[in-house]
């Protein structure tokens, strides 16, 4: 009587065993297949992160794993189909015939070949005198006759207009140099760069170059900087605002423009930019020689919208040279040339000359160039050789032995077609920033140098450069531990906490490249509501000027995406072991709002706008800030009717009288 039940029980036990084995095998197969796939894709990203491939965005988006970096930037493609179409090779620029004179260490020299042809060369020299930040005058001319026995003329001013003639031939040009004057000596207080722990600073910048474009268009410079100088490139260097001032002001002051006295031209009785607490003032007080050079003076960082400087802000100020050259000289020469030199070479030579003139004095030098990169990134390729040769000279002449060198840009391209691509948006927010420290620094301050290398993969911003300068100024490198995540600014010689987010770093959502955007269908209801809310908000901003500015209407939604948080990031509470390998995922971070990013076009005027909107889930409303809206195509003369009196509305106003044009 017991056998049948026994057989049935044994049958069912065997059946469940078989099912268990089959399920286990299937599960193991799935895991192996998944791991194999992940390893294959993950190999192109930094170690420790898994990724998802989004076909619509065509961009790999790393997903932060609990216990790892809170901010992960995607590893962008150096060359894809879009970029291959936009970028092209630019041939080397060949300038005119050889200059009659050249400047070397504050002295004019006549070219030897001229003295072979002509027994005498008659020249006139006049100083280029700064009257204001907007005006440069030519001083009185001094006549000098050069012969085979008299070949040089000692400069007592940095910038000269030169006119020469010999045998019915003439020479007309401007020259720049660096002169060690008595006025500068007073500022130096006899401090020498040989003083223990005191380092020079040289920062060389180009406008509108993303991290990737720097690599694309300045390959020789990038290779020399990273492989020969072993410079540290900050992969996570993120902008904090829109445009050059929002990049340079935090670097130079540690503050935003809105945290400083308002120096806008349009404001009555606005103070000069002299009121800003520029870091170069601190270096000057400490005995450093300071220098600042910026080309394209009429769109200058501190003069385009701002009042400029009443007094020369640094010991050596190249602006008077550029104000005169832009107005009177450049058009006489070949494109991008000044005499026999590329204008980038003139710029870099002047930065170099500060080091030659002040060999035994500490120096803080900053140059920022935009002519070959602001409007067309392709042209910056013509500066690659000049910049590489400058770095080689500084190294081989041992000027870099006690110099901290920074190569940087303010932001990526803003108005090109690239910006309409997802990768283009990321690149705009990720400009190039690299730091070289000399061997002396590495051996004496290994902890600070190690922190700098760690920070290459951490979230950094222009705010962090200011305290870095302060550390250099005070030779404060031996205390570099873990930075305080509660502080917006952290010296790059301290370790930036891996938990740092854009919120910690003072980077608004709109500019944060850490954001993990998930594309939405263009007919998504939230995308449409967000787009409508944006147009309504723009119309509110222009409403007080409705007699002049037309009401805008939504024409098209070009792109829409939603911020998707990593679930593990939301659940992460703390590490559950001493080594930080295991994550405690018991946290429950409440999401109070969602972020949307949209690109739209409006009519009239066919304006292209990009904005980040906060969707308050509780009230079901969209919140938009003026600072979170960007115009991504040129507005031209569309806002001509309010251009002078309402600068803040230029991006949004389409003048009604344009309709009839």
List descriptors.
661 residues, alpha+beta, seven-stranded mixed sheet, six-stranded antiparallel sheet, 27 strands, disordered N terminus
Textual characterization of the structure:
With 661 residues, the chain is of the alpha+beta class. It contains 17 helices and 27 strands. The strands form seven sheets. Strands 12-19-18-11-17-13-14 form a seven-stranded mixed sheet, with helices on both faces. Strand 22 and strand 23 form a beta hairpin. The protein is globular. The protein starts with a helix and ends in a 30-residue tail after the last strand.
Overall 3D shape:
globular
Low-confidence stretches: 1-13, 26-66, 566-587
Rg (C-alpha, Å)? 30 Å
- Structural class per helix/strand content? alpha+beta
Biggest sheet overview: 7 strands, mixed
**Spatial strand order of the main sheet:** 12-19-18-11-17-13-14
Number of strands: 27
Question: Share of helix among residues?
Answer: 25-40%
Instruction: Average the pLDDT over all residues and give the rounded result.
Output: 84
Share in β-strands: 15-25%
The termini sit apart by 104 Å
Give me a quick take on this structure:
This protein has 661 residues and is of the alpha+beta class. Mean pLDDT is 84; it is low at 1-13, 26-66 and 566-587.
Question: Mind sketching the topology for me?
Answer:
Elements: H1 3-42, E1 50-54, E2 59-63, H2 81-86, E3 101-104, E4 107-110, H3 112-117, E5 121-132, E6 135-138, E7 142-146, E8 152-154, E9 159-166, E10 169-176, H4 182-188, E11 200-206, H5 211-217, H6 219-228, E12 232-233, H7 244-253, H8 279-285, E13 289-294, E14 316-317, H9 319-329, E15 337-338, E16 341-342, H10 343-357, E17 363-369, H11 384-396, E18 403-409, H12 422-429, E19 433-436, H13 439-444, H14 446-455, H15 462-474, E20 517-519, H16 525-542, E21 553-563, H17 567-571, E22 574-575, E23 583-584, E24 593-603, E25 607-616, E26 621-623, E27 629-631
